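tokens incoming
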């Protein structure tokens, strides 16, 4: 892996396009895995790569500790490949490196040359990762009489840079009988302004906040109310993803908010699948459910139809 990075650095001067390192894990390291992967951090930081993309749980230690690099972790090889195609502009240099076993990364290496031949896009540095190609507005209109889709816009290209976590927590919380007591906001990394440690909210306030552009500290708080341990939260999330056939990267971090180092993505059809099964729950608070920080996503009852949308720049 180190030799590959150094070889990549030696060739960068011959290419004028984006320089990209994409890596998967080093397999069969046993108890030494974390420490050995950490040894790559210095080489990544000192590399000449414009972008670094990492797959597999073992590489998260690299992403979380690398500084001064545009580095992102993925849990979905298909999403990594999609992003890689957009980053590979004219005269790019790409390093792909991982172990052969116990990782999906070699499939990316197999597909990339074929996909590059079919792909045509021009993406400037400023477009990634928050630009239109990665965060496309889309909507569906659903008949309230038949539940059929009656109008679509850009549905096949819909994509986001945030996650769907607040929706799943809301559905799960509404199905539990949680005592509506007052709770004090705990110390969360997103606390500021009104949302500071010790601020008082009722349990119902915390739950219903999910449907009205929730502050990430309230999302942390609801997760804390719902789950005793992280493994319990992950079990419920994984069940949602499996049962509703959600995008693999629909829930990557706990709050669902955009973070540069963790690639999340869900589609308009992920929201649609949840709406069809849980529309009464999702529209129980003022007939709408809106979430997201930089970009808004939502489900709104408009009378004759329900509007489902992703990646809007304004509240509806």
């Amino acid at each position: 892996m180190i030799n590959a990075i150094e070889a990549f650095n030696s060739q960068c001067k011959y290419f004028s396009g984006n320089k990209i390192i994409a890596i998967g894990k080093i397999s069969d390291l046993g108890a030494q895995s974390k420490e050995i992967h950490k040894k790559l951090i210095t080489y990544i930081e000192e590399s000449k790569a414009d972008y670094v993309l990492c797959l597999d749980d073992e590489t998260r230690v690299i992403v979380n500790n690398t500084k001064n690099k545009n580095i992102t972790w993925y849990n979905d090889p298909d999403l990594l490949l999609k992003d890689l195609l957009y980053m590979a502009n004219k005269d790019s240099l790409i390093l792909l490196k991982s172990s052969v076993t116990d990782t999906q990364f070699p499939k990316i290496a197999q597909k990339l040359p074929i996909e590059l031949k079919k792909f045509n896009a021009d993406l400037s540095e400023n477009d990634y990762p928050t630009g239109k190609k990665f965060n496309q507005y889309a909507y569906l209109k659903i008949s309230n009489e038949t539940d059929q889709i009656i109008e679509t816009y850009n549905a096949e290209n819909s994509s986001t840079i945030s996650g769907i976590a607040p929706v799943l927590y809301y559905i799960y919380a509404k199905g539990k009988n949680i005592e509506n007591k007052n709770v004090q906001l705990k110390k969360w990394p997103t606390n500021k302004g009104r949302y500071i440690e010790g601020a008082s909210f009722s349990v119902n306030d915390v739950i219903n906040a999910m449907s009205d552009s929730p502050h990430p500290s309230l999302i942390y708080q609801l997760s804390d109310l719902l789950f005793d341990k992280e493994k319990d939260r992950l079990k419920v999330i994984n069940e949602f993803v499996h049962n509703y056939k959600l995008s693999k990267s629909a829930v990557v971090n706990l709050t669902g908010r955009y973070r540069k180092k963790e690639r999340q993505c869900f589609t308009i059809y992920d929201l649609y699948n949840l709406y069809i099964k849980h529309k009464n729950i999702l529209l129980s608070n003022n007939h709408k459910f809106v979430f997201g920080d930089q970009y808004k996503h939502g489900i709104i009852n408009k009378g004759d139809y329900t509007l489902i949308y992703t990646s809007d720049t304004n509240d509806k």
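note: Residues 175 and 281 are 9 Å apart (CA to CA).
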